[in-house]
């Protein structure tokens, strides 16, 4: 699935710094678990996407699944060879954005970034929708609540990722192996049996609404291309491998290619032989599983393992997108917000952004995989093409040994992925691909506008220039107070430490209260001037702002010190501070004074 | 309707202070417009509430509407006489809460306040639901969207009240006069005609499910009592009248009594004579209007004017509840939040609270008036009783001329409203009145808990005691900085003015960047020490908090000065400041340092 770990290369740096070396790095087999779950899990919706399109021309056309899959596997072969070269040239990983930034200039890097963001979001949505469908195949009661299942899974993933649970390749090993075994088992057992062991789901009445023309075949091909998403993830994560990392990564890429190709071809054969058509309440994969295993425990176990692997595939987006967004933020192309990590090493804003966008998408399509597939893969193929073109440029510029042969391979890859991408876009345009065509340019525009702002702000802030030395001035600290109290004593203590001059200011609406305050002040005699400001309209904030504005701009540094009562129990927070926070907000918006919040903690 | 202007007495003080005198005060007739719209508009749902209950025993029982209405009008008479006395004794107005606080002690005042809050919310819900039903009578297309109509009206009222449009009695005069004319017109025209001019709505098939027993009559009576809500509003608003204000207010109260009584009796007569039963899609009032006017323009005009008057009646709650909540906040019985007015003279939090609560209620009952009526009026009658009992206590304590006669009248009133209240409560308990019985004690508990907190906080803050004089200490100002820039220069200037000692602190994750900063600092040489804090885990906030914690508690006043970049355009706000705000929030929560935000405004 799409670019799952594109930017994860950033993470392993921390252990390295602590000198823990290679034992935290991946072997070839572990790499398969950590970096190709999203690609392998595509078999859960790729073949289905082909069948759903072909069935429009009647059940007789299902035989076309096999030749279409053969073409897709050819494309897969070219991509795998191409990415083995990408691994050799970019051993630091980095994904399409990094490659494009380095070799193809800013504009194409923005295109790559936009395509990546769209894909990360789609990966989450498609994986969860397919996972929910797989779960519902085993437990039919869930089939009317697919959206709810998706949103529950999404909430779970988001929570886990906000807490920052670091996933480990070893934890992923078991589900990966189980998944590969059960998928290959479906193919082998299915071929060994002469007819399906069991048939699940309710029969659809098939009305042939279209004939099997070239357009329908192209459509089925482009839908099936969704099975190729994620092939690039290993190339993006090369730094995660043990030395010799290039060799190991290439070996993993080849393993992925062989496994995925075998699964796709085997399933296509079974679909053709057993005339597997879409049936109500179950997925095509569930039908194949029932055909191979019957409906015993193996069937349920397969459904559960497929759901788990799809959820884990969605999880790789949570590893990838927040990191990509933080890189974009560091490049001034997204709000710096997305580069913020509070105390946990998690880019929370990125995680939340991904969760919100995926949830919106899932709700919009009602968690139906078939409605997401047309949006999917356009962005992935954009990334494929950019990577290959970048590589061709690299070969031509550097001209190492055998550069021409390599350039031809990557060039062929680029041409094939471009053609496939165009087929995808044209055949799926009206079904949803237009949305990607709208979203990608909008994202690119956003990046550009954000960058333009930061460049201008940087100039205004004088970043990178040595400024004149700071000026020494006198200071006035204004303390808004309502009454004589322990709080007032604490506030004046802080103000006297900070200011050359201190004045207490009280806004009073009623003359009697003002008089009483004046008397109490004189009895207290704190050595600080008290000014009482009249407020005929009972507003507290407006007269204070006017007072502060009068004092600023006289050459002195003016600070307003606002005492802030903080109850120990959070449930009382609503009962305190509201006036101080309101005053602080208005002062910050309307005056040039420094606004100081002084905490006063209660035992309550 | 309920206590519409209970606390509006606070508003007219401002004009007085400016010496504009009596021309902003109300004449008797204007008082009718300003203070009794909610009472008069009750005729839109009071008679209907009786009919809806009686129809359960078949159409033959509709004749009982007249005697039940006669009893309600007797109760009205007693209330009007009672309230004329309340006006004389409490010329400063004030509502049940003020009366109870003065004469009956804190516990009953809390009961009065809780009952008032419940009623304000119900007034909004009932008025809007009845208004939407009236509108749908004229425009049947709306009848399937009653809830949506209510919520649109509510949004409109809330927006207007958040902006603080001060309603004027003169603006209300026209709809009031039109409403009275059209209601009296229905009665007079209806009586003059020998049979209805037109019949609107679709016939319901009536199945008699109950017999006309005493319980059904009591139920119909208690539902009809909803027509009496709002009778007390004039007494609450006495200070709004021109001198002689007691006389004028009493005259208005009498006018209200006569008009409301005449309308109720006339309508009850017509319901009996024409056998008006509930029909689909129209209100009882709409049927009466069609019977009197036919279905020409007068019918549509009446529907519109009824809707308008009901919306205006709902609006009186927006005048009353936020003010009551601000009074409760001033008495430490609600969060001080509700006493906050920013720059407009509007208690926004109270307005929002009222809108949210009414919206929830409308959604919960699906905007059906009949489901709100059982909740309504229990609280109103609690307020009636509390006011009367307070007055009896007043007469017995003060013993002015004729006190015994007066005490007897108010005592009779108290007994009658108590009996009516108990009837309401028992007959309507299962239909929803239990909700009021739950809500009122919960609100009283809330008031008590809030007050307990404020009392304890007041003690801890040393309010009302003269504290020791403030202490003179030295200060350290810490300036978190990332780089040498114009922003750093401005921040150090402010810090040097405020602190006896200033230190710039930079958290750096990468040694190369730290070195570069150190070099730039030495070239700049601002005369301030730079400390670089290492952050192996790339967190910015945690090392800074640790640094600040080390410095506090050494006897010096520690302040952290955080520069805050403020773009001129609000759309850029998301692009700046997030790191500073995050740091400020964590420092405020975790350290005892004074946190100072220094604004740095961009021209962007």
UniProtKB/TrEMBL annotation, chains A, B:
Chain segments carrying region Disordered: 1-21
Q: Please tell me whether the keyword 4Fe-4S is annotated for this protein.
A: no
Q: Which residues form the signal peptide?
A: none
| Localization in the cell | Membrane
Q: How is this protein positioned relative to the membrane?
A: Multi-pass membrane protein
Keywords assigned by UniProt, alphabetized: Membrane, Transmembrane, Transmembrane helix
Organism of derivation: Streptomyces javensis
Q: What is this protein called?
A: APC family permease
Quote the biased-composition stretches of kind Basic residues, using this chain's numbering: 1-16
Q: Which InterPro entries does the UniProt entry name for this protein? A: AA/rel_permease1 (IPR002293), APC_K+_Transporter (IPR053153)
> What parts of the sequence cross the membrane?
32-58, 64-89, 110-136, 142-164, 171-192, 212-234, 254-271, 299-325, 346-367, 373-396, 408-426, 432-450
Q: Does this entry carry the keyword Membrane?
A: yes
Source species, domain of life:
Bacteria
């Amino acid at each position: 699935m799409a670019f799952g770990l594109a930017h994860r290369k950033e993470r392993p740096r921390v252990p390295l710094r602590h000198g823990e070396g290679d034992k935290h790095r991946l072997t070839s087999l572990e790499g398969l678990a950590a970096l190709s779950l999203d690609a392998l899990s595509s078999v859960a919706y790729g073949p289905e996407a082909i069948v759903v399109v072909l069935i429009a021309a009647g059940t007789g056309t299902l035989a076309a699944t096999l030749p279409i899959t053969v073409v897709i596997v050819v494309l897969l072969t070219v991509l795998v060879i191409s990415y083995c070269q990408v691994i050799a040239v970019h051993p630091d990983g980095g994904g399409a954005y990094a490659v494009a930034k380095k070799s193809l200039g800013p504009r194409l890097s923005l295109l790559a970034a936009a395509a990546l963001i769209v894909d990360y979001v789609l990966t989450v949505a498609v994986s969860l929708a397919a996972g929910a469908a797989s779960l519902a195949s085993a437990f039919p009661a869930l089939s009317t609540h697919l959206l709810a299942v998706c949103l529950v899974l999404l909430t779970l993933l988001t929570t886990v990722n906000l807490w920052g649970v670091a996933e480990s390749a070893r934890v992923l090993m078991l589900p990966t192996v189980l998944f590969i075994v059960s998928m290959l088992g479906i193919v082998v057992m299915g071929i060994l049996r002469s007819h399906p062991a069991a048939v699940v789901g309710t029969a659809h009445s098939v009305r042939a609404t279209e004939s099997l023309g070239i357009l329908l075949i192209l459509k089925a091909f482009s839908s099936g291309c969704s099975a190729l998403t994620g092939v690039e993830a290993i190339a993006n994560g090369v730094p995660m491998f043990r030395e010799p990392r290039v060799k190991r990564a290439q070996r993993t890429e080849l393993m992925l290619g062989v496994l995925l190709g075998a699964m796709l071809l085997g399933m296509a054969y079974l679909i053709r032989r057993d005339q597997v058509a879409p049936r109500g309440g179950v997925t095509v994969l569930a039908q194949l599983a029932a055909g191979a295993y019957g409906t015993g425990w193996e069937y349920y176990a397969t459904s559960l393992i497929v759901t788990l692997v799809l959820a884990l595939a969605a999880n790789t987006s949570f590893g990838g997108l927040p990191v990509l967004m933080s890189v974009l933020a560091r490049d001034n192309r997204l709000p710096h917000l997305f580069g913020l990590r509070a105390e946990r090493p998690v880019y929370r804003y990125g995680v939340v952004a991904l969760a919100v966008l995926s949830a919106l998408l899932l709700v919009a399509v009602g968690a139906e995989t078939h409605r997401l597939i047309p949006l999917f893969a356009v962005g992935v193929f954009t990334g494929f093409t950019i990577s290959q073109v970048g590589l061709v440029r690299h070969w031509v510029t550097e001209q190492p040994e055998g550069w021409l042969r390599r350039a031809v391979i990557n060039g062929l890859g680029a041409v094939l992925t471009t053609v496939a991408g165009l087929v995808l876009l044209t055949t799926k345009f009206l079904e949803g691909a237009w949305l990607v065509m709208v979203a990608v340019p909008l994202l690119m525009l956003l990046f550009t506008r954000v960058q333009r702002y930061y460049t201008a702000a940087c100039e205004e802030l004088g970043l990178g220039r040595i400024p004149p030395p700071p000026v020494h001035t006198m200071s006035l600290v204004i303390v808004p107070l309502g009454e004589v109290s322990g709080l007032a004593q604490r506030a004046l203590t802080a103000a006297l430490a900070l200011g050359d001059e201190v004045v207490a200011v009280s806004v009073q609406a009623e003359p009697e209260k003002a008089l009483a305050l004046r008397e109490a002040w004189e009895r207290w005699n704190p050595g600080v001037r008290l000014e009482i400001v009249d407020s005929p309209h009972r507003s507290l904030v407006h007269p204070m702002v006017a007072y502060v504005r009068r004092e600023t701009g006289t050459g002195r540094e003016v600070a307003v010190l606002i005492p802030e009562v903080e109850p120990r129990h959070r449930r009382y927070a609503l009962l305190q501070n509201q006036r101080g926070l309101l005053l602080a907000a208005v002062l910050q918006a309307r005056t040039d004074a420094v606004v100081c919040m002084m905490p006063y903690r209660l035992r309550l």
